[in-house]
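Hi everyone, sorry if this is the wrong subforum. Our group has a chain we'd like a structural model of before ordering constructs, and none of us has done structure prediction before. Sequence below.
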Amino acid sequence: MFRDITSRFGRGTDRRLWHKRALQKSYDAVIIGGGLHGLGAAYYLGRDHGMTNVAVLERRYVGYGGSGRNTSIVRSNQRSKENIPLYDEGMKLWPELMRELDFNLMYFNCGNLNLAHSEAEASAFKMTVATAQYMGVQSEFLNAKECKKLVPQLDISDRPRYPIFGGMYHPPGGTVRHDAVVWALAKGADKLGIHIHQLTEVQGIDVENGKIAGVRTDKGNIRTPIVLNAAGGYSPTVSTMVGIDLPISVLPLQAMVSEPLKPFLHHVVSSGRYHAYASQSLKGEIVTGSHMDPWPTYNTTYTTARYLKHQGEALIEMMPCMRGTKFMRIWAGLTDMTPDMAPIMSDSNIEGYYMDCGWGYFGFKSGPITGRYMAQWLASRKCPDILGPFSLRRYRDYNLQRETAATMYYTPWN
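Answer:
Right subforum, don't worry. Here is the predicted structure as tokens:
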């Protein structure tokens, strides 16, 4: 479907957004993964560094993985001092990208409200707010009544299983149409002359004398000195091709949308205690997701009754007006989870081999800005300072990040 999108989403009448090109025998760089991170790196390689002899290899079609299987939420209210500047810069990039790529990304700056359901959670949120404010990111703590004023449908009584004690409100947060971002970056990269090869499976990576030498695909072999692994949930498999075992667990995450409703939810609302988050789309659908499933799998075609029950109960607990609403569609995506819930943006002991992976369920909001910095790294062979803390070497040095404080609490589903 995605590979047949025509220029009715941009300018023109009969051209595709990107061209189908012949696979060359050599490229200056090969990017494995046709999602937001891979396409972002490709686009900025061409735009900022004049590197256009670049191939993006995608086993299915662009946006097939996590880029097309998410709930489109963007925010910069992370917990650690390493993550906040990157996400904050990424938030400011969305309006710039819309103008630059001449593409409507459907950016909706509606704000993000994270609910606290205990005094301990409220205290943790206050610390996160203080960290954000110290680093120049707009964030504030609201008491329960202020939360209800912001979202009148919230139940702040003592009826819910987990009463609302307050919330962390992040005004810069919102939503961006995920497939529009994929198409826009693919269009922009193609316009610069970068080759996007869909339905092209990487079967091996050649290393000679400790250096990247080439990539083997089902369409032919490629000589290249640079490989970027931006394969999302499939990144551990790609890295095994060069003998690198990544500390990543691949877990599915299910999401769904309701039938269209009259507009009532004007902000993104999330709860770590309930493992639920929701926003309302332009069509009126309630877009909602939860925590990862606890079992590793690469299957994105299944759904579970357990999850449907959990999600319905969670939404009704927080917003009783949702009672009786029908779910219309459900899907699953893969999350590549690291032990410290922070990504891996790193080079390696193999010269020319780079990684941009381990994003878990935070990868969508960081795609374009990370692509810009990874492009800088690939072109200059020098790590940008902002990416330094995310090296794979942090696990060897026991220097894990503290981003787990910003993630959802794990509570077994009833």
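For your construct planning: The two ends are 38 Å apart (CA to CA). The domain at 107-172+249-337 is CATH 3.30.9.10 (D-Amino Acid Oxidase; Chain A, domain 2).
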